[in-house]
Amino acid sequence: MILIVDDQEANIYSLKKLLESQNFIVDTALSGEEALKKVLKNDYALIILDVQMPGIDGFEVAETLSGFNKTKDVPIIFLSAVNKDKKFITKGYASGGIDYVTKPIDPDILMLKVKTFSRLYEQTLALNEIQQVLRSEIEERKKVQQELKEQVDNLYSTLESLPQLAFTANGAGDIEFVNSKWLSYADANMMPATHVDDMDIRTVWAEAIVAEIPMELEVRIKELKSEIFRFHLLRIIPIKEKNNQLKWVGTFTDIDDQKQMEKKKDEFLSIASHELKTPLTSIKAYAQLLERTLNTKADDPAGKYINRVQSQVSKLNALITDLLDISKIENGKLKITKKSFDFENLLSNAIDIIYQTHDNNTMVIERQGDRIADAFLGDEIRIEQVLINYLTNAIKYAPNTERIIVHTEKDAHQVKVSVTDFGIGIPEHKQKNIFGKFYRVEESSVRFQGLGIGLYICSEIIKQHHGTVGIQSELGQGSTFYFTLPLN
Ligand code: ADP
Asked: pTM here?
């Protein structure tokens, strides 16, 4: 909208007609005072201002408008019949006007100017708007940056207070921050030196970076001024920052004392089980000799006692064998000898052994599922050991029940063997640890004797065959333990 300000109505009329003929919307004011009121109330793209008016003249109006934020950018064309000399023209510009037209007006020239100015004004408005958007965007960014900085500062002070070595890195894995503890192990932008026999941190981490997943690694690292490598648990996790960028936070926790203790315990287990095995083998042999020498009748208590000795010796033997297996696993010496064997045969052998060793039990073992007719390549004795372990547990942890199901499934890739019992079951939150070393479910550990190593050995045997182990169980309803073995 264009505002025409003139004290002569006739001037206004002709100018208004001229502008309206070119489709401009026009407003008018008959004095400087009226013009100021209107300008403050409405938005104008251009003001055509008569210089000579009674009261506030055109220059004063322009000066006032240049002082308001709202109006300072509105272009003004001064119109005057008299002030033609240069002094007045200059005054017009100084007071904020943009052009100066003297009367009599050349309508074509005036129209050209009006069009140019109103276009200029529109462009100025658009630019102002863009500027405003940009300004608020910059403000928003500054705010986010400030928040981010505060977050990062918080993280750094937390990491500084940790007893561990701690660091952060950018998405590509370049170290950005290390706490002061770090500096006794490495320079600020480097990983500590690792033992030659351990995995390379950068190689393992590079895989985690690609997959954007946390990583854990046990490595031996060395203090700068020491020659001794100590075991540390390295944990690095990815975190997403507020600006969606990925960052890595890592810690090295000293676990060397724990590792040494574990090593001593494993050594003790290994020595103890070896030492126990020798006298036990003699006891077993002498018990057999004694049984033959006594040649007892059926109702002779001596025969009964010698049988009990033999059965207890077998239990002890099984325990010691398990302990020996554990130390073999720890030393990487649990060897698997793969040979071709008949899987069906293995299944029926294991079931027979269970019946023989539990002859006073009324349990029935049902065989279900596919027959595994083809020859299978693996360590028959070790796989049988796994199945016997599952079955022994199924009997042990399902007292007063009479049914166990051995189910087999075979497809083009694998064989799956499951043992289901209807016994005490395992609470869901304990299931994930069940194959761990020395793990026993607290609730049942008082009622049932055991060491918590059978399932651990099973999982190691199956792992060596590149298979998987697992469990489905419901407390009070029973459990299904399974293992899978890949074919070929
Ligand atoms: P152990 O039986 O000597 O304790 P295992 O390693 O064979 O050791 O089993 C570990 C734990 O898993 C057991 O202590 C028991 O709590 C639980 N468990 C194993 N098999 C079953 C089962 N069939 N039903 C319920 N709990 C079981």
From this structure: 0.59
